[in-house]
Model the fold of this input.
Amino acid sequence: MRTKRFHIGSALLLTLGLIVVGSLLVHWREFVGGIRDGYREGAAPSPMIERP
Done:
């Protein structure tokens, strides 16, 4: 039972870690792209805040 529980826990941790890393990579690309576009335009608005 202990080994089975450990395998389930490690699998959950692995999947959670993969999801977190993937989302961080996607947001990091968006963040860097927004900063580069901001510098190109002459100002650096934060990509996280969307202005209407």
In short: The CA atoms of residues 4 and 25 lie 31 Å apart.
